[in-house]
Amino acid sequence: MEYQMPQFIEIESKIIFGLEFKQVIGFLLVFGFLGIMYLLLKPAAFFILATPIASVAIAFSFVKVNGRNFFDFLTSVFAFMGKSQIYIWKREYEDVIFKDQIIDLSEIQIIKKHKQQDEKPNIPKILSSVEIDKKISEIAKNLNSKKLYS
User: How far apart are CA 50 and CA 35, in angstroms?
Assistant: First the structure.
């Protein structure tokens, strides 16, 4: 019996108190910076500045968005916002059956273009359901007799 082993699993090892290496380094840098701020600033100014800095450090360490860490998420957000947003879409038309008639939507586009150019459009004939059945039976007979391209 064969067992399938999971592949491409990326789990970073926990080092201290269940924290990953990047989290430990980040906390050491941030709290070292906060310690220097504590020595240089008055307590009121320190707490006003330390609260958002510590909040951002905690967010970067623990918050995950869609399974990705917060830093990678913010990198993707700014990369998306920084590039140009050009969307190109070409509409593809399909045939539509309306009241026993097949209407080719591309014909509507032909009519609009010709109205703008004041020319008479060359529109194919719209077939009724009886004519469609006749065409289908004719094609089926040709397929059976192998005279499709004759």
Answer: 10
One-letter identity of residue 48: I
Q: What are phi and psi of 2, to 5 degrees?
A: -105, 140
CA 44, chain centre distance (Å) = 46
Between 31-40, 61-70, 93-102, 134-143, the lowest mean confidence (pLDDT) is in 93-102
pTM over 0.70, yes/no: no
What pairs with residue 64 in β-bridges?
A: 69
**Alpha carbon separation from 28 to 32, 137, 139, 145 (Å, rounded):** 6, 81, 79, 83
**What are the tens digits of pLDDT across the range 33-64?**
999 999 999 999 999 999 999 999 999 888 88
Using CB atoms within 10 Å of the CB of residue 98, give its burial: 0 to 12 exposed, 13 to 18 middle, 19+ buried.
exposed
Instruction: Write the DSSP symbol of residue 128.
Output: B
